[in-house]
Amino acid sequence: MKILFIGGTGTISTAISKALLLAGHELYLINRGNRNHILPDGAISLIADINDEQKIADLIEDLSFDVVADFIAFTPDQLERDFRLFNGKTKQFIFISSASAYQKPLAHYHITESTPLANPYWQYSRNKIACEEYLMHLYRNERFPVTIVRPSHTYDERTIPVGVHGEKGSWQVIKRILDGKPVIIHGDGTSLWTLTHTRDFAKGFIGLLGNIHTIGEAVQITSDESLTWNQIYACIAQTLNKPLNAVHISSEFLYACAYYDMTGGLIGDKSNTVVFDNSKITRLVPEFTTTTRFDQGVKESVDYVLSHSECQIEDIVFDQWCDKVIEIVNKSIDEIKK
Does residue 201 contact residue 221 with C-beta atoms inside 8 Å? Predict the structure, then answer.
């Protein structure tokens, strides 16, 4: 197939791009070219800023595609641009939405594609909902061949997923475990979460490409494995060969005293129990199955991060905030016990 990705080198899209190239597909990438070196040879780069609409129009003037997928659209105006650029030039347009768009708080922890979309806590999620509504309008009224994909928390070897972290990523949490310092886990750590390795996500995503049964549909692609946050952190600590000194603090307290806005990512996402029903993706892509357990995937992530200094971005502000929050909570407990 002849495929165009807007993006193509991010956490979700890199594994897909690699698999498509190795399978011999003709893959075009529109991006700024800063990370194309991580892909195997063979991708055709269209180096440009997607927001430079006229330049993109000139680059694709004589091209048409079986599939166009936008991995970096977050607002409806960006999809309006995509429609102007690709209407009549592709047999399928795939939009990467987000499972965070599902209703919060959830009426039921078991999530299907028919679970209502409503997240009052996170603008990011509301934007994704607006994007979906706009695209479905185009599908119904303009016959634009839309497929919507909803990933949940997807990770690769470059990322170690945690629940509470600073603005610079998860490394400081890993460093706290390595240094024997206490680590904050939101709530009591027993809510369920779903983590999907990009290799597994790629299997399902590739099965949707050119699949006529996916036009006009929304599909979630996640692992079938659900873990508590206590289990997630225990797996990370075990992989690091370090004891886990966990301090459980309510999500409401954490976001209320956070130095940056945790409302969306914590209250509107990670503090909720989520278990996904993958029957739709397995019906559409019968060969789809997830094969990377979290304890296996996180070992790859830990090995990669520990051997790549560029992944070890220290966050002193977050570290000090953790120390302060833990100290205050412990003092409060001591005071109450007096």
Answer: yes
Amino acid at position 295, single letter: D
The amino acid that residue 78 corresponds to is Q
At 201-251, the pLDDT tens digits run 999 999 999 999 999 999 999 999 999 999 999 999 999 999 999 999 999
CA atoms within 13 A on the CB side of 26: 7
Q: Is the model's pTM score more than 0.90?
A: yes
- The Cα 234–Cα 246 span in angstroms is 9
In total, how many domains does the chain have?
2
SS3 218: strand
Judgement on whether residues 270 and 242 belong to the same structural domain of the protein: yes
Tell me how far apart the alpha carbons of residues 316 and 174 are, in angstroms, rounded to a whole number. Answer: 13
308 three-class SS: coil
- In this prediction, residue 41 has a pLDDT band, given cuts at 50, 70 and 90, of confident
**Is 162 domain-assigned?**
no
Closest CA relative to residue 261, chosen from 123, 162, 126, 127: 123
Q: CA separation (Å) from 175 to 74, 293, 301, 315?
A: 32, 23, 14, 10
Number of H helices and E strands in the chain, helices first, is 11, 14
User: Residue 135 in contact with residue 282, Cβ under 8 Å?
Assistant: no
Same domain membership, residue 128 and residue 50: yes
Contact indicator for 28, 1 with CB cutoff of 8 Å: no
**Would strands 226-228 and 192-197 be described as parallel, antiparallel, or unpaired?**
antiparallel
Q: What is the 3-state secondary structure (H, E, C) of 28-63?
A: EEEECCCCHHHCCCCCEEEECCCCCHHHHHHHCCCC
